[in-house]
Task: inverse folding
């Protein structure tokens, strides 16, 4: 008789992702056993409300509404925190660590808010925290950045990190419908939350970019300090102009190592059609990494969804059971203050090409005024698009593509331009991806 | 004073990749130390010919032409085998394993020929073999398949695995020049070997596909039994017809799990323009993986090149020094006969759509004859392309796209068609990617 070892697993939270994880553990124990060399045994799953219908069949005795039955079960070695939210999740994770459990989490908001505290607590208690599912859903970007580029200096990382936004942008481009119409459809289809604010205003992307920047560059950025613009203010007119010029607008998180430190930004960005990031459409994610030895790598996959996220959680459970998580966790010292930190650069020093649109009166001298304002900031014009007004006296959109300049220069120029009487609304500027 | 632990590393072979690895270890010791928590110390590098000029500066005492100085140095813990070739490399690796060294190798031909023997020897001696660099150059596909999909059943894997072939095919499509012209240019540019046979005839792709199939599906395929067609026989006419119909021809390695086992094939394949694999151009690689939980993932990156391959070797050296390699190696039992093996299916049962071209006389009845031959095998025509002959009496190419059929039916139909007097050359058939 062969005795197979067991690693007993607890779940906290049994919503969409939690149910997906339970399904894999219960229905496909053979897989995880083959991959881990031991059975991952779902011992206990705690939920707030026992009466709520669930998307999975649990064996008797697994479900509980007492979180302490997970915390205090000495046989449970690893717990997946899938309850979401921030403050209660923090308390639960701290309790679980103190009780000697290793943690797997999909909760990027938790890590963004309390990463250093939680990782220090894990080190103090000799436990580990794995977080593959916290960024880019089913794409194993955390493992790839933690393990696979160890001979490299990463130079830049550019990601489509929010599937909801990418779905909405794809629709705006393909169907020419404004943001307000698409968001309603995305909510109906389940691609957007009832309250999509954190997705569409760039918060979610900034939190994920902060996590990836730590792994790729050794920086400890505060996500809230990353300059960010969402897609909720994106005007359909800009989608159309971008398309006319051969570009697609994507919500990108960008991290780039420069002489003055790590430049971080989140916002709608023009990507040239035919480039890999421009071609990612629908609720997918992609991460492009450039590094000095390997060159350019691109990862593409589902950014969210029950089973894709569960896939990442289960991979973490297996890595934790096998012991790989412990080795990586010990070596890399995630969010430890002992490690050397890459400095975050002043965002106004960021260099890039820009798209700039202004609505102006169709009067002589406007273009000269704008061109002078740009020249004053040393901004050089690469191309220029002006269409005839729809009717006499109506406002005329002017679109300018610049050569490389700094974010600070661009902001100053926009401020100057917005003060002109002939300019009828705030100028819109967006980065253009190289 | 902080004492940092050292892991002493040996290199066997100091050609293009070996020099790249030496450069990273010597010039960027801080990186590998940060990633491994210990210094990877290049202790000894053995070469055949000491007088040959090298692409890296080694400290005194590192270079030797006595391979036994690596084998017999008790302080060397891990050795990267980068000498290439098969039989001598096999002997060296067996000696190194017996001497208690862990192995890192980029040698896919070695693994394809002697994988089971070498992995058994490693297990016998309690050592490990890491082989990230053996497939897809800088793309960390080995680590991804070994670790990141443990909750999944992989359903299919489709790869552009040979950068030389992809470079040549890209040129044939973009410039409309025949294979014979491009191969000469590729050799001049260093994208093809002086003897490119193993690349262009599909051998290299089949060997890599065999390795990936083991990791993704638990199969133990004999690479030599994988049906394979190279690009060396690809006619420019077929490139043009494919383009006319909106496709790009790629040399693909395809593994697909079916009811009758694992279907494996290597050959030029039509990929629809706008799909991610069709858009990979130049000397790059890409691997598309579909799996039941995660859905579709795509990995893209450099398929070869000094530093990209060195990046993969160094990641393996770090994983070995940290201990991750040992955990993965023990758990997964690479190429062990003890593990359950997924059966390889009969290739003639493979299902797919096909592109079919025949050169025929412009005579009445030819199309009816061909259509009848296809119908007899149950093959249904999806589309049909016949152009007017260039001059009276000249041969007319007929191009047919079929609906799903089996490889066996296609082969039988082609045989029947080639026997018709009006058909002037062997029919050309290629798979069309779904």
Result:
């Amino acid at each position: 008789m062969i005795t197979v070892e067991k690693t007993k697993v607890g779940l906290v939270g049994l919503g969409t992702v939690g149910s997906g994880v339970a399904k894999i553990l219960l229905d496909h124990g053979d897989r995880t056993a083959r991959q881990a060399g031991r059975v991952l045994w779902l011992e206990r799953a705690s939920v707030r409300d026992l009466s709520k219908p669930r998307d999975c069949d649990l064996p008797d005795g697994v479900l509980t509404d007492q979180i302490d039955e997970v915390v205090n079960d000495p046989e449970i070695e690893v717990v997946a925190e899938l309850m979401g939210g921030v403050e209660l999740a923090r308390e639960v994770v701290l309790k679980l660590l103190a009780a000697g459990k290793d943690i797997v989490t999909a909760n990027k908001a938790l890590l963004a808010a309390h990463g250093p505290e939680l990782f220090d607590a894990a080190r103090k208690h000799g436990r580990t925290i794995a977080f593959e599912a916290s960024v880019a859903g089913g794409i194993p970007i955390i493992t790839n950045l933690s393990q696979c580029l160890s001979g490299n200096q990463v130079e830049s990382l550019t990601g489509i990190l929010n599937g909801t936004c990418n779905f909405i942008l794809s629709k705006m481009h393909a169907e020419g419908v404004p943001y307000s119409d698409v968001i309603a459809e995305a909510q109906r289809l389940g691609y957007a939350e009832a309250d999509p604010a954190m997705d569409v205003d760039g918060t979610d992307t900034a939190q994920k970019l902060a996590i990836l920047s730590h792994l790729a560059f050794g920086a400890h950025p505060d996500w809230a300090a990353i300059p960010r613009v969402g897609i909720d203010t994106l005007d359909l007119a800009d989608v159309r102009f971008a398309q006319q010029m051969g570009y697609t607008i994507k919500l990108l998180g960008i991290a780039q190592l420069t002489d003055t430190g790590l430049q971080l930004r989140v916002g709608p960005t023009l990507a040239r059609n035919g480039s890999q990031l421009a071609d990612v459409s629908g609720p997918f994610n992609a991460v492009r990494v450039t590094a000095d030895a390997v060159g350019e790598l691109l990862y593409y996959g589902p950014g969210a969804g029950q089973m894709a996220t569960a896939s990442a959680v289960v991979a973490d459970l297996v890595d934790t059971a096998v012991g790989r998580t412990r080795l990586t966790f010990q070596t890399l010292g995630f969010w430890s203050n002992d490690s050397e930190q890459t400095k975050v650069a002043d965002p106004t020093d960021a260099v890039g090409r820009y798209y700039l649109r202004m609505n102006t009166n169709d009067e002589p001298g406007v273009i000269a005024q704008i061109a002078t304002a740009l020249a004053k900031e040393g901004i050089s014009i690469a191309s220029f698009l002006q269409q005839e007004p729809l009717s006499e006296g109506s406002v005329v959109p002017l679109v300018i593509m610049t050569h490389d300049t700094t974010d600070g220069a661009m902001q100053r120029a926009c401020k100057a331009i917005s003060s002109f009487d002939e300019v009828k609304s705030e100028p819109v500027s967006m980065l253009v991806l190289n």
In short: Residues 108-124 of chain A form the longest helix (17 residues). The mean pLDDT of chain A is 95. Chain A is about 35% helix and 25% strand.
